[in-house]
Amino acid sequence: MTFDRPDAQQRDDIDPLAPFRQRFIIDEPALIYLDGNSLGRLPIATIDRSSRLIREEWGRRLIRSWNEAGWWDAPQRIGAQIATLIGARPDEVIIADSTSINLFKLAVAALRHQTGRQRLLTDDLNFPSDLYILQGAIELLGKQHELGVMPSPDGVHGADVAAHLDDQTALLTLSHTVFKSGFTYDIATVTAQAHEVGAMVLWDLSHSAGAVAMDLTAAGVDLAVGCTYKYLNGGPGSPAFLYVRRDLQEKLHNPLSGWLGQRSPFDFALDYRPAAGLRRFLTGTPPMAALALIEPGVALLNEAGIAALRGKSVAQTEYLIALWDAWLRPLGVALRSPRQAAQRGSHVTLAHPEGWRINRTLIEQMKVLPDFRAPDNIRFGITPLYTTYTEIYDAMARLRQVIEEKLYERYDPAERPDVT
Amino acid sequence: MTFDRPDAQQRDDIDPLAPFRQRFIIDEPALIYLDGNSLGRLPIATIDRSSRLIREEWGRRLIRSWNEAGWWDAPQRIGAQIATLIGARPDEVIIADSTSINLFKLAVAALRHQTGRQRLLTDDLNFPSDLYILQGAIELLGKQHELGVMPSPDGVHGADVAAHLDDQTALLTLSHTVFKSGFTYDIATVTAQAHEVGAMVLWDLSHSAGAVAMDLTAAGVDLAVGCTYKYLNGGPGSPAFLYVRRDLQEKLHNPLSGWLGQRSPFDFALDYRPAAGLRRFLTGTPPMAALALIEPGVALLNEAGIAALRGKSVAQTEYLIALWDAWLRPLGVALRSPRQAAQRGSHVTLAHPEGWRINRTLIEQMKVLPDFRAPDNIRFGITPLYTTYTEIYDAMARLRQVIEEKLYERYDPAERPDVT
User: Fold this and answer.
1) What is the distance in angstroms between the Cα of B27 and the nearest Cα belonging to chain A?
2) Taking CB atoms and an 8 Å cutoff, what residues of chain B touch A108?
3) CA A339 – CA A329 distance, rounded (Å)
4) Is the whole-model pTM more than 0.90?
5) ipTM of the complex
6) How far is CA B354 from CA B361, B402, B405, in A?
7) CATH number, domain containing residue B256
8) Distance from the A44 Cα atom to the nearest Cα atom in chain B, whole angstroms
């Protein structure tokens, strides 16, 4: 197979999702932005949503907007829109706080529900914040639980989960798509394995939601959390979502029991009584100026449809890997993502001993913006709503040039920030 | 003393803070907004800050803005600006999460620090969300602590704290200004009483910050939390702040140990090591589109100066109470706020058996916007940056008219939402 730029352009020409790129702000068309897996682009519709919220809802209508403008219901309304992207029912997803705080709520709720079981199981590919939160939760619960961290066989692929599950496992919690290699667990298989031994499952969907198709309902997933500022295009640090399977909602207790999760917040009763359904997992008043911005981005994803998005994402990561095979592998670049599409999310990680200097050269000299993850990984995020085949082609061509011509040598390796 | 409208206008004419009103969006000048203690008005400068953040920082510069646009440092930078309003040092205040979640972090940190002490002390005037969070925290810590809820003598004034403190008290936590009556504790006295028995103190400053002067440093306050969407004008649900006295920062542990509180978040190490200083009390990625909006409002407060703001607030609440005395007391309206200015925050609560219908009449018929708090309280919030004496005069005159002419009778009392 040969690759050339006309072929890449041809792929764009026939891409049915290509028009969605025009729904985003793209100020520097020459910049190849491959970091939408860290911070998604700004949907054009979000600009209006923001200015209406600030100028009209807050500025003009003031406190009245909590009811009039739908602020009060926004966590559930937007949650329901995310539900369709992850195969959940509308009343099973709600927006709240940050991914880390939602993980705390649900992990603690699960551990307290699973009386008599001591093990909390995760893996060493999980996002470190998740591990930190679990470590903190175990401390808080009186160190009655132990955290088992399953090793990845190769730093790329997920652990052999079935081998680590046992009848002492209270909760299995994993990143669905892992942040470094992009490996994606099979939700249905792993959830079934956990359920077989009576463990609950809590998935972190941060690197999947909006790019990887899944069906939480069919898999019977217990719990999930996820981020809205990556593929969902909600804006920097936009509030996170959480999912609780319908039949579990009344059985679990939110340890961060604040007034927004209270049955009747405006009674101002002195004792906490949890709200019905998912609202009990709310805590404090949500930051509306950020929360409201999630809605337009999620609407775009739903308009495109998650099946089509996943289809394009797979085609584009396959294309990137084919270019790597042809051009970069011979230059000593390693693929640190799975080759099998079913095991891969929407970013591809390439590695080279000079990864840090190469990444810097791409950003500062070549108008390519991926991101670097120690010790030597460069992540290329594919965001099917706006990434083009031509961008992938150009990015890989420039990466080849940087390595072939050793353009990275202009940077002093001593400038690399110390890993402490 | 007689009251008339020219006298009120005269008071506005000589008010040195009067020009600050022009720095806010006021779309309906005829609307008397006395709910700035729930949601502060929109500063004009915030509109630009928001559109720059959305359109330029997110839209154009994308992920690069975390460093370039000061997003990363914003929690500390804005925290330092709030510090001057509450008499704290710049490195003692940081923006994070919601008030309820910050209260959880600091209350749990304090209880774990105070080994061997079982009592957690608060009062029945505290904001219920604070009580709910404390109840949840005690559950989580294995029910080794008991929550003592000191009774207010009359539902208006704070409890006799000294009588309840003992050598088993681990932590005393109170709303500095209480949400219903506006009673304000004397921070210096109460903190000293707590320290005398070895208890730590955690103040909720939500109804004080930006309107009531205080000196946390002089009082030696251990811990505090507070909200930014009331007198600080940060926008609906804007993220909260927390304060930890400098010498305690390295001794306390954040139970919600997320990656933003980690020493080197981008090392992605598997074990949590807390950051130096106050950053350890961060958890997840903050919602920048809301967090950034806190800065312009706080700048306005600092420009006015907290001493001047408090001076005007006291003068205005005194004025409102004088009008009540002259006009409303004879009509059976009760004052549910302290008469002594030193014991009062920046809102005044009036009560009447028909409070719910009267409040609704004020809002729907009289262009006055206070808020109602069950069972019969109407809160009038004074926000010295933009509340005028004329507004207070007119609001009380209209309240008098509503009662004298029984204008509230147009509403069916059965429409009042059930308190369940």
Assistant:
1) 6
2) 140
3) 13
4) yes
5) 0.97
6) 11, 11, 13
7) 3.40.640.10
8) 9
